[in-house]
Amino acid sequence: MKLAVIGAGAVGRSVVELAGEYGHEVVAAADSSTAVVADGTDGRASGVDPDAVVARKAERGIVGDAEPADALAADYDVLVEATPTTLGDAEPGFSHVTTALERDRHAVLANKGPVAERFGDLRAAVDDSEGDIRFEATVGGAIPAVSTVEDIEPGHVTAVRGVLNGTANFILTRMAAEGLDYDHVLAEAQDLGVAEADPSFDVDGTDAALKCVILANVLSFGAADDPADAREFSLADADVEGIRDVPGSALRLAAEDGRTVRLIGEATGETVRVAPRLVPENGTLAVSGTQNIVQIETSHAGRLNISGRGAGGPETASAVLGDVGRLE
Amino acid sequence: MKLAVIGAGAVGRSVVELAGEYGHEVVAAADSSTAVVADGTDGRASGVDPDAVVARKAERGIVGDAEPADALAADYDVLVEATPTTLGDAEPGFSHVTTALERDRHAVLANKGPVAERFGDLRAAVDDSEGDIRFEATVGGAIPAVSTVEDIEPGHVTAVRGVLNGTANFILTRMAAEGLDYDHVLAEAQDLGVAEADPSFDVDGTDAALKCVILANVLSFGAADDPADAREFSLADADVEGIRDVPGSALRLAAEDGRTVRLIGEATGETVRVAPRLVPENGTLAVSGTQNIVQIETSHAGRLNISGRGAGGPETASAVLGDVGRLE
């Protein structure tokens, strides 16, 4: 398939680098201010030179000399939306996706905003298009949460819960292992690059909540006989509590009882909740460090547990390219 | 989709019972000596009455008054092959599947024989047909091992390993927990119905090996640019060691070292191996009782762990019906 990759962060760059290995071709790429569109001038029959794109971004901070709008107007089969997640109107990601759908092209999202904040609008745009959307990469990085729920069929999934933010999980894991307090471990995580300078998005539970909102939308719309009857969820519908206020003493007390604390998100077709919860120390939900885990409760097949790397450029890019494969 | 369900064991009966919930219709069902084909005489507009089929099987030991051949000749979209796994020529399951393919219909297998023993012949039959085959239910019951490998793409999966036989795992779990020997726990498992009167298929590693052979075929054929270059695996290519000779003392020694023993199967595109192996007592591979786990090693997304119920009628039927959904 011919891909237009919008967004040149870790995920977008990895998609550009790996697309060829999956049998696809990048015909356009854009960051926030520049773009490159295949025109044969780099000596290739078709497609852009992935190494050149990544090198330009690293050396000059740009992907090319064209305008971002040129990439959106390129002749692609699938638009890959990998710009940073934005809340509220979820722009500019939302418009990038609907532009592709209006042209009857497919879109694959790594950007959580449009699927978490405007799922109904997105479904409506898909209904009017020959194109479709997929968004496996928005939940749990390399973990196939969305496609597994789709294969089981949302109507037969009663709940999805898990550890969906590696930064918060790393902090809780270190607090328990070293008996340190939140502030100390946060500083350590920031030094290691595991936590951002402003960690709110991760430690306040917002990121985990967006992923659960997306799962709730998949469950609600997937189970509804008529989409008009489906309940649409957005971040405002989520009951969210982060880990800033988890004292080291709570982890010490939990350990004496063979338990530990994890930031657990849960989605059903009716509710979305994220909060620190006590879990068995050696239990399935007590994944370590930046690992994520998703538990899928089914009507007929019991509980499925899927754990793996919840973030990372190549990990998330592999989810994007898996989605592209499903659209073929 | 219209289904013909061949085989009326726990899996076949569950497919008949659950098909309607997944939006499909059973138009024919057969056991080894009888069949029922929808003809409207039971008062239904179309399809057979699932409850009546299951009741007849329970009360009279038959699914209907027609011949098995009538079910194979029925007007179905997908043939569900749920007869017992047979080795060697994998008959009669193999012919049931090829009959469907020759009629340009799809086939979904729960029977491991044809995919493990005659994968090349099966691929050839698919190449000559408008129909396709799927076989998620042959590996790990409710665990989506095959479809997850397909989504990642076999060329990007370096190995798949795991605990793939619940009976052997139940025995090893009980031996470690109770400090009992193999013979004692086997007798207990047989009383509980977890082990068969003749447990060889499970405790000698044959069942786990067949599942790994199927995964090896998926990896080998999926990664080959030309199927002609793919290596075909069968049980004869597997290096298999069971659990009969695992002494209770070995589990006690392992426990002193914080480890335990599990029957681990591993498949790559080149090798298939099943043997008892030492694993960390609280590690990911040390699932308990009849749980199964599959670990997928990927080139770009690290390791994925998927655990859940590896057997059971409804669990396996849900995998069959998930495959039917993928064929739509």
From TrEMBL, chains A, B:
The keyword Lyase does not apply. One of its GO terms (biological process) is threonine biosynthetic process. It is an enzyme of class 1 (oxidoreductase). Gene3D superfamilies: Dihydrodipicolinate Reductase, domain 2, NAD(P)-binding Rossmann-like Domain. NADP(+) binds at residues 7-12. InterPro entries: Asp/hSer_DH_NAD-bd, HDH_cat, HDH_CS, HDH_short, NAD(P)-bd_dom_sf. Keywords: Amino-acid biosynthesis, Methionine biosynthesis, NADP, Oxidoreductase, Threonine biosynthesis. Pfam families: Homoserine_dh, NAD_binding_3. L-homoserine binds at residue 196. Belongs to the homoserine dehydrogenase family. This is Homoserine dehydrogenase. The lineage of its organism: Archaea, Methanobacteriati, Methanobacteriota, Stenosarchaea group, Halobacteria.
